[in-house]
Design the sequence.
């Protein structure tokens, strides 16, 4: 309508600005919806595809504008554009009817999800990933705008003078660019991103632009306008294609591990703030250049473009590092039933502070735990917890003061110690005060009327100051006391002391007539780490009642107990159950000697491979280079077993066996193998992130699973990550089998073959539950029973397997009679 008037020059700027603003709002809503509908794995695969819808529209629009403009006039084409907007309302209504826009994330929770201006500024400051992605977007868009300006500047200075020819040239150029982009997005992008990863995918565009600009700069200095025009045309098309097809969807996909609120804020910052700001920055730069030089120096513009590219690459490298950290943190144990808990905003902190004054002990412990590393004024929350009338909450706060040595809590501790009505809190307050205070404040309680208080005072003084004569005398009197309670307390004090000078006292108490005294003495022996005490401990493990206690003491001893653990493992008297406990203990102890022991047990005890791998992972073991190949071979073997199980599960499902116990046992077996492979990943590769991935799979929400697979895709070699993801990611069995056939030979399968392979297991591939299920499945298939195998299974050391085999034999005999 405005074009029907005098068409003032400002109107064209207003019209273009209006279009860009409305297009931006549309984009933000579109990507906001996509961000909430898809997880991080889906976003990498689908963002390039769902964003390709506007490309054919632009392609048609650019070409139509030239030919229709010639016949209808350029102004009248706007009516076609207006008509297209009206038609789009119909398709929007069709989308609404599908229900995709009616989830709780779109209605009723807007205030909680959509961030305001203050939140966006706060998130930009606090979220490294968003801030760095925003700078990537800024420099990439600034480079893109400047590149377009340089290109169209060369067009203006070229031999093209006629408006119609110029319009045709620009339209064909833009249409070609969009056509190539469309093909690239649909056919290449998702495969490329999956192959190269986030960082390398983002680096493609700036690195290629960097190389092309190096060629363009010398050409521009030689004043070869035609060559430079076509060179910049090539560069502009290439960068337009790569930026639209790779940069934009991949950059938005990096936001997916973030909580929804931050995710949407990230999209708003990238597309709604940084891109327009880049447009503004380049526009002001060009405007200033015109004002002072009355012309544009395209060589200087190319140099500025070169600088923008260098900055662009720098921020991409930062994004990749923080993307990996964000994925890992997304699975950190801050989720309740798969929902993330945010404690960064003031309103939430205010609510938690109020809650601490009246909550129960469990809630207080939870609040104090989640706030521990997140708020700078943590001491204030501890003080608030001490104001809670529930003494259980106060005890939790006192334990935290002791653990963190919070000296600012001294006045409140002294208040508790002086309050006669808080006798239950005295032991906790004394231990807390002793953690950072001197002896004089604690010695007073050595003569307290309460035994519990006196005992805690002795422990605190001897533990913190080591040589307090008053406490020493009281300890010796407890050791030699005729009261068994006193001797138990003496053992308890010694177990907390871990002082080798008390070795003889511990030996005396280990032979005490009272079981409770022996119990505490054995714990003390573990902490002291003396060879004489170790030998005494190992002797006592032969008594079943002492087994758990001795193992606990040996754990306290640490690496010094490893030779004793090796001797117990190779002993014929060591039961299967005890071997498992010893292997787990070696993992908890850790250290070079324990790791070497576990590594040797892979060959010595192959039937305990699950326990050994679990223990190696517990120890945060990192095998030396000579052993890495051994573990990689083990990973490959486990992957192959898992792939074979996929084929078997698929075969059973298509042969109406998907309701059977055998089918479900195979699925359970697959779950166990997944855990074992993840543990092997944690041993060979990044321990922390592999365990985070395992945690994400245990949480088992859509987003936690996707984040877990994405972490593995980042930290593992592609040969492992792609096979693992193919086997365990949620997708159809047909799809999995088709993909696995490319690298793994599909076996010839029958139900009988599957069952027999499980029962004749020679490599310890299957657990006892799966074997028992395979045996039990024979109940309804008497003609398939191989009695030689079943007889052998009936003699199994595993009770479940032997009883199931005997049941089948008995059942067959009964039915035959």
Sequence:
């Amino acid at each position: 309508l405005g074009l029907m008037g005098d068409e003032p020059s400002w109107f064209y700027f207003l019209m273009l600005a209006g279009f860009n603003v409305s297009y931006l709002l549309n984009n933000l809503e579109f990507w906001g919806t996509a961000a909430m509908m898809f997880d991080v794995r889906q976003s990498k695969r689908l963002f390039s595809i769902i964003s390709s819808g506007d490309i054919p529209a632009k392609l048609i629009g650019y070409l139509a504008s030239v030919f229709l403009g010639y016949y209808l006039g350029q102004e009248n084409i706007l009516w076609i554009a207006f008509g297209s907007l009206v038609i789009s309302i119909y398709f929007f209504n069709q989308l609404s009817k599908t229900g995709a826009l009616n989830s709780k994330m779109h209605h009723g929770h807007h205030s909680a999800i959509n961030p305001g201006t203050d939140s966006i500024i706060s998130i930009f400051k606090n979220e490294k990933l968003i801030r760095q992605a925003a700078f990537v977007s800024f420099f990439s868009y600034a480079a893109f705008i400047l590149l377009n300006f340089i290109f169209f500047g060369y067009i203006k200075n070229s031999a093209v003078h006629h408006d119609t020819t110029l319009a045709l040239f620009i339209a064909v150029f833009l249409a070609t660019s969009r056509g190539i982009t469309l093909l690239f997005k649909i056919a290449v992008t998702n495969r490329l991103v999956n192959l190269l990863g986030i960082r390398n995918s983002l680096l493609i565009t700036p690195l290629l632009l960097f190389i092309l600009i190096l060629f363009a700069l010398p050409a521009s200095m030689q004043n070869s306008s035609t060559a430079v025009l076509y060179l910049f045309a090539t560069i502009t098309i290439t960068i337009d294609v790569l930026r639209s097809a790779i940069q934009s969807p991949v950059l938005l996909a990096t936001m997916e591990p973030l909580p929804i609120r931050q995710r949407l804020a990230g999209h708003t910052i990238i597309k709604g703030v940084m891109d327009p700001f880049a447009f503004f920055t380049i526009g002001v730069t060009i405007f200033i250049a015109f004002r002072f030089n009355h012309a544009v120096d395209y060589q200087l513009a190319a140099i500025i473009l070169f600088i923008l590219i260098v900055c662009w690459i720098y921020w991409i490298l930062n994004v990749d590092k923080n993307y990996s950290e964000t994925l890992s943190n997304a699975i950190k144990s801050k989720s309740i039933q798969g929902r993330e808990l945010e404690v960064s905003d003031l309103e939430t902190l205010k609510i938690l502070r109020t809650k601490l004054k009246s909550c129960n002990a469990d809630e207080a412990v939870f609040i104090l735990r989640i706030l521990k590393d997140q708020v700078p004024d943590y001491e204030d929350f501890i003080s608030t917890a001490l104001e809670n009338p529930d003494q259980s909450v106060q005890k939790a706060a006192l334990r935290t003061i002791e653990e963190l040595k919070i000296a600012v809590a001294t006045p409140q501790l002294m208040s508790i110690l002086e309050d006669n009505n808080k006798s239950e809190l005295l032991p906790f307050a004394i231990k807390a005060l002793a953690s950072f205070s001197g002896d004089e404040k604690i010695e007073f309680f050595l003569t307290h009327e309460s035994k519990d208080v006196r005992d805690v005072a002795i422990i605190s003084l001897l533990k913190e100051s080591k040589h307090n004569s008053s406490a020493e005398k009281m300890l010796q009197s407890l050791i030699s006391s005729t009261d068994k309670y006193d001797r138990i307390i003496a053992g308890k004090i010694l177990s907390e002391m871990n002082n080798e000078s008390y070795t003889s006292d511990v030996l005396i108490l280990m032979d005490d007539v009272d079981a409770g005294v022996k119990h505490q003495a054995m714990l003390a022996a573990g902490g002291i780490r003396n060879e004489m005490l170790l030998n005494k401990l190992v002797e006592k493990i032969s008594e079943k009642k002492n087994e758990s206690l001795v193992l606990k003491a040996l754990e306290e001893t640490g690496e010094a107990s490893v030779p004793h653990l090796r001797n117990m493992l190779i002993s014929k008297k060591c039961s299967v159950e005890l071997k498992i406990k010893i292997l787990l203990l070696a993992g908890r102890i850790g250290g070079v000697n324990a790791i070497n022991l576990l590594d040797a047990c892979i060959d010595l005890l192959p039937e305990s491979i699950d326990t050994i791998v679990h223990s190696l992972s517990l120890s945060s073991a990192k095998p030396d280079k000579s052993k890495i190949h051994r573990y990689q071979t083990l990973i490959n073997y486990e992957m192959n077993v898992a792939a074979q199980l996929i084929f078997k599960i698929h075969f059973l499902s298509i042969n109406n066996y998907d309701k059977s116990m055998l089918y479900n046992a195979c699925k359970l077996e697959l779950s166990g193998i997944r855990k074992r492979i993840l543990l092997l990943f944690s041993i060979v590769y990044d321990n922390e992130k592999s365990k985070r991935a395992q945690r994400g799979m245990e949480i088992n929400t859509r987003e936690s699973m996707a984040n877990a697979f994405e972490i593995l895709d980042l930290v593992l070699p592609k040969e492992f990550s792609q096979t693992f993801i193919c086997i365990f990611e949620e997708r159809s069995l047909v799809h999995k089998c088709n993909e696995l056939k490319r690298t793994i030979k599909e076996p010839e399968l029958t139900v009988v073959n599957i069952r027999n392979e499980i029962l004749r297991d020679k490599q310890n591939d299957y657990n006892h539950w799966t074997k028992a299920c395979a045996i039990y499945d024979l109940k309804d298939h008497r003609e398939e029973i191989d009695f030689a195998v079943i007889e052998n299974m009936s003699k199994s050391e595993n009770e479940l397997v032997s009883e199931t085999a005997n049941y089948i034999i008995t059942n067959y005999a009964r039915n035959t009679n």
